[in-house]
Design goal:
This protein is mostly beta strands and 380 residues long. The chain contains 1 helix and 27 strands.
């Protein structure tokens, strides 16, 4: 039997987790001193005197509003069952103006992660409000990081003066790390996070988080210009929780992409002859550097070959070879983002070798010829 990588203790009253024990790290991941349970739904009211408080805008001589944060309560355990894939736990709770919160906790056998799904039924209200999911991780002298569109950021080191330190937009993950490991959330549906505290309108000039918690900011109605004045209806949000010993942003980015964009199947029309695959494991495209990800592979807009986009994830110059066991690259160009050919590239043994700079995103045009099409019918 495959192992379950975490041991969790639930808190049915708040519809959340009281404890997460990482068996590999042999340590607790949850900060028990935080006022919020791990994975708890938090409803925040207040700031109804806008625009006369600092939450409305930065730079004005206004004071922060008084906010009231209320976690979910009146919860109960619906089920806790072992399945072929692992363990599934379902909790139900409620909160102000949120009549139903159904939280599903899944611990898969085949991956070291915890998957969380929140199904909400929320009332439409016009009073000022905000909704969060709290993830109070345990970390001494915490260091935060999050993925951007083409790299990752340490907000204590990388952010320019004058930037917003109340909330951040993450691409696929936000993490906190300490001396004995790291943990991260992968928010599939809610890209805004707050590090250390909820949004209060303090507009700090320096990054000085109040705790090692990550808050996922689901919704608010603080700013009414060009937006609906409230949110109501049924909503679903998905998260994955992952952790480890050595912080590897490139590997975490790959994990985030795989979680948010799971494997899909599609039929490909090609002149392949019938026959068995070359091996039990086969890859249509191979890139031999784990720090480089395939972002896009598609038919070129002008129909001439295919367009391949690659991104360096680790923040260091990398050389790579791209090729396939199914086709040869006959010609290749480095292109602009608009797919205009710029530099003709040499091909070597049916593949292409290229250098990519730290966090660089490059676009290639490939003219290929199938290897299998040249083989006699019935030959592998």
């Amino acid at each position: 039997a495959l192992p379950i990588y975490y041991r969790v203790t639930i808190d049915p009253e708040s519809g959340s987790l009281r404890s997460i024990w990482d068996k590999d790290l042999a340590r607790e991941l949850v900060d028990s001193t935080n006022p919020y349970r791990f994975g708890s739904y938090v409803y925040v009211s207040g700031a109804d005197d806008m625009p006369n408080n600092s939450l409305y805008r930065f730079g004005a001589a206004l004071k922060p509003p008084h906010l009231k944060a209320v976690p979910a309560s009146h919860g109960r355990l619906v089920e806790a069952v072992e399945t072929a894939d692992g363990v599934r736990i379902v909790l139900e709770s409620s909160a102000p103006h949120t009549t139903a919160i159904r939280t599903e906790i899944a611990l898969p056998k085949w991956q070291k992660r915890i998957n969380l799904t929140y199904a909400l039924r929320k009332e439409f209200v016009l009073s000022k409000e905000a909704v969060y999911i709290a993830f109070p991780f345990a970390a001494e002298t915490p260091k935060f990081a999050y993925e951007t569109q083409n790299g990752w950021v340490d907000p204590a080191r990388d952010e320019l003066p004058g930037g917003s330190r109340e909330w951040y937009t993450v691409n696929h993950w936000a993490a906190v790390r300490g001396s004995d490991g790291w943990a991260a959330i992968i928010p599939a549906d809610a890209p805004l996070v707050n590090l250390g505290d909820i949004v209060r309108g303090n507009w700090p000039a320096e990054f000085a988080p109040k705790s090692s918690a990550i808050f996922s900011w689901l919704m608010n109605n603080y700013w009414g210009t060009n937006f609906a004045p409230g949110q109501g209806g049924e909503f679903t949000f998905h998260y994955s929780i992952v952790s480890g010993r050595d912080f590897d942003p490139a590997a975490l980015t790959r994990t985030g992409w795989e979680s948010v964009t799971p494997l899909e199947s599609d039929s490909v029309s090609a002149s392949f002859q019938p026959g068995p695959l070359p091996s039990d494991q086969a890859a249509l495209l191979r890139v031999n550097n784990p720090d480089v990800a395939v972002v896009t592979w598609k038919i070129a807009e002008d129909g001439r070959g295919t367009i391949l986009r690659l991104e360096e994830l680790a923040g260091k110059t990398a050389r790579l070879r791209m090729g396939s066991q199914y086709f040869d690259v006959r010609e290749a160009w480095r292109c602009s983002g608009l797919e205009d050919d710029e530099t003709h590239l040499s091909t070597i043994d049916g593949g292409v070798e290229i250098e990519i700079k730290p966090f660089e995103l490059i676009t290639l045009r490939l003219i290929t010829q199938s290897r299998l099409a040249e083989r006699p019918a019935g030959q592998p």
